[in-house]
């Protein structure tokens, strides 16, 4: 009986924990939802920082969630900017 009660408690806590994560993601309902399409764009913010985004929607989504002001600079990777390579892990210099 104690095992069943412990199991039910674990299930309840897991449900409660996952609800908290979902609720935090829903706080910015006005932020765009983006498709997983790779059409890289280069964005630049008001401080002059450049960042390559997977697509223009992801640039807008980043601004929305992070409160930043990146604008589209070009429809390609940012030349000479070090970005992480998601497939291999190490950083690579894009645009060379």
UniProtKB/TrEMBL annotation:
Residue ranges occupied by any Kazal-like domain in the UniProt entry: 25-80
Highest taxon of the lineage: Eukaryota
Record's keyword terms, sorted: Signal
Entry-linked InterPro entries: Kazal_dom (IPR002350), Kazal_dom_sf (IPR036058)
Matches recorded under Pfam families: Kazal_2 (PF07648)
Signal peptide: 1-22
Name of the protein in its database record: Vasotab-like
Native species: Agrilus planipennis
């Amino acid at each position: 009986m104690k095992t069943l009660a412990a199991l039910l408690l674990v299930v309840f806590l897991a449900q409660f924990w996952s609800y908290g994560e979902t609720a935090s993601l829903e706080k910015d309902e006005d932020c765009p939802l983006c498709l997983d399409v790779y059409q890289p764009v280069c964005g630049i913010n008001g401080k002059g920082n450049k960042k390559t985004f997977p697509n223009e929607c992801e640039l807008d989504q980043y601004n929305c969630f992070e409160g930043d002001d990146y604008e589209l600079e070009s429809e390609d990777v940012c030349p000479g900017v070090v970005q992480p390579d998601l497939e291999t892990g190490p950083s690579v210099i894009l645009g060379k």
